[in-house]
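I hope you will forgive my troubling you with a question about protein structure. The record follows directly beneath this note:
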Amino acid sequence: MAGRSVVITGAARGVGAACAKRFAEAGDKLVLADKDEAAGKEFTEELREKNYEVTFVHADVTNRLHVHNIIAEALDAYDGIDVLAHTVMERFSAPFLETSEEDFDRVVAANLRGAFLVNQAVAKQFVKQLNDDTSKRPPGVIVNIGSVEAVTAAADHVAFAASQGGLHQLTKAIALALSPHGIRANAVGLGGIKSEMSDDEDKNSMRNATPLKRIGDPEEVAEVVFFLANPASSYVTGQCIFVDGGRLVQAHRQENNG
């Protein structure tokens, strides 16, 4: 299993970076993609200093040409792809009546269109590898990162919630479409996870809204992604595993704990 070619989008920080470290520690070879070129290159060098095999692509997954470049880099570096961990997520909060069409289009493009483009491009490569008589690669695996707002909602998160619901359904449909090839696709839905972008007020809100009364670590998410990408989960497809500290099992919560 070790030595797989793993594409990770949104890899420069947070959950994407944690996933990169987890796969690298297992001996996998990485193609990291992020639209933040400086942060992506810096993180790539950090991994290389630990003798991990990793390459970086500056890419915005909403751009089809950029997605093509990710695939091309993986083929050039490692002759194929075995795993996609798509971790790109753009959060957006604004009152519904003040959310512009441009805001909506941007968030849906980042969270849904980008997922469609990169999932489809990688899936085509997976199928091509399976049809190649000289390839010894097993069926590939896709893991998409989403949010608990795939099934819940907040009044000020209209565009974000819509994109997450779409990503959830997209993953299920992709799983069905690819199942005849033995290719699996699953999602991981996040609750309150630590982020460099969160301020103290956000952290307190997340902590109060979580039954475990703490914020999750990106490394905890990475462990679930790693599990879904491995043979240990070979009978799991079309599912979403929520890493949320228990948020979704609550019958209700106070409005100010949102």
